[in-house]
Amino acid sequence: MEDTTGSNPQSLGFTEKLKSWLSWSWTYVCFIWFGMVLIMIYVLWSPLKLQETLTSVFLNTLTPKFYVALTGTSSLISGLILIFEWWYFRKYGTSFIEQVSVSHLRPLLGGVESSSTTGLFSSVNGEAEPRPSVSECKVWRNPLNLFRGAEYNRYTWVTGKEPLTYYDMNLSAQDHQTFFTGDTQQLRPEDAVMQKAWRERNPQARIRAAYQAIEMNHECAAAYVLLAEEEATTITEAERLFKKALTIGKHVITSTILHHSGKDINLLVYIKRRLAMCARKLGRIKEAVKMMRDLMKEFPLLGMLNIHENLLEALLELQAYADVQAVLAKYDDISLPKSATICYTSALLKARAVSDKFSPEAASRRGLSTAEMNAVEAIHRAVEFNPHVPKYLLEMKSLILPPEHILKRGDSEAVAYAFFHLQHWKRAEGALNLLHCTWEGTFHEVSVYPKKELPFFILFTAGLCSFTAILAMLTHQFPELMGVFAKAFFSTLFAPLGFFADKMESFMPSSFWHQLTRI
Fold it and tell me: Which of 318, 337, 366 is the C-terminal boundary of a domain?
């Protein structure tokens, strides 16, 4: 696909200026148009006898059957809109009218377009590559995803079943294509092979394509990454292949310091992170923590990559709770996207301080202390964020292998969190007991958090449909009485216009308006 983000800056600048001018002039154009309409109505008020015409047409000539048909048709149309809005809201979780207004009308009216947040990887010059905004990111890469060859395939060897869905693997293929193989116009031959390799559904076909890319260029780091992920049957073997890929990646960046792309940096960051995860799995936890900290310092724009979640898990394994609290203080911020790891780790630290001496019977007699109340509130906050986690931590539901992608606040995120953090909760004496008491006494099996509010346009169309239906029924049952109400309504409606006309006549000379009406 051709990249048009940097092409023809003059046309883009002209478009932005045009939008800016339209948004600036829109308010003034509306005021001018409204003023011209008022002046035209006043000028034509006497010659065309608008008042008598409106009165005779709308109040005298038209029969009650017309008003019944008018209000009935309005009720029918608003009812159809209501049905469509309700169906669209149940299926997509948003209002169709609101979505169209925000997407198409808001930019023309000067609304601020949603800007993309910091990307997963930084480019060569330090700028972040464009990525969707946080609110649009519904599916996230699992920060602690397992290795396919060394871990996921063990399940396949034992059961003969695939541990990952095709949808999950397809998302990973898209990630690898986007981050590792560069722009389509600048693809090297081995990159083209790797583009195809990531898309292959058969693991053996992917591995063969990786070897083909290595034959074409021995310094194809992406090929070694694929072999480390999928062909290596042990973590030690995967680490060896990742180290080879790291050496190649550093050499490529050093030898092409002025010409390497952001994709080379992306690949280098990915390799370093996976090497840190290898060290963590092989028991070299302090080394893993150092690698993660160095990576976060070297590439500070990696917020959405969630390396801090890997760091939190490794620090919990070291039982370095003060360091865990320091990391939480930095990332447990209201302006940053939350995760089950952030919320439940914060709850674990607070629960750990009181859980060893906590007793439900004693708490019910004397009440909760300040520290116990803080722990309970932290658990409440975590459970409200993701209510699926406690059942896995309390082993009320069986754990399965975590997926490569997770849905925030969903069951997949709960599986991924509990798979790696259950041991840390068990290590804190009484923490699971406190969680059990809080979960059983506070929350239901099915969470309704956050509850979706009905969009404004559904409420508006529902009210309009009901109001017009009532008018149609009343007009059909009491035509004379509704006629009286209609006359009173239109008289009240045109009263400000008549008042405005009288004031204009008092300010302007009659000869001016006479000459204007002749024109």
Answer: 318
240 assigned to some structural domain: yes
pLDDT in tens, 171-200: 888 888 877 765 544 667 888 888 888 888
Residue 164 token pair: 């990952």
Task: Determine, yes or no, domain membership for 110.
Answer: no
Task: Give the residue among 177, 179, 252 at the shortest CA–CA distance from 221.
Answer: 252
| Cα–Cα distance, 19 to 390 (Å, whole number) | 50
* CB contact set of 284 (below 8 Å; sequence gap of 6+): none
CA dist 264 → 3, 185, 274, 426 (Å): 18, 16, 16, 41
CATH number, residue 288: 1.25.40.10
**CB within 8 Å of 69: residues ≥ 6 apart:** none
> How far is it, in rounded angstroms, from Cα 131 to Cα 116?
6
pLDDT for res 44: 55
Closest alpha carbon to 303 in 117, 428, 453: 117
Is residue 155 within 8 A of residue 161, CB to CB? The reply is yes
Residue 64: inside a domain: no
Q: Note the pLDDT tens digit of each residue in 111-144.
A: 444 433 333 444 434 444 444 344 434 788 899 9
Q: What is the DSSP string of 183-221?
A: -GGG--HHHHHHHHHHH-SSHHHHHHHHHHHHHH-TT-H
Asked if residues 207 and 227 have their Cβ atoms less than 8 Å apart, the reply is yes
Largest distance between two CA atoms of the chain? 100
pTM of full prediction above 0.85: no
- Average pLDDT of the segment spanning 198-209: 88
For residue 285, the enclosing domain spans 136-318
Q: Specify the range with the lowest mean pLDDT, choosing from 88-97, 177-186, 218-227, 269-278.
A: 177-186
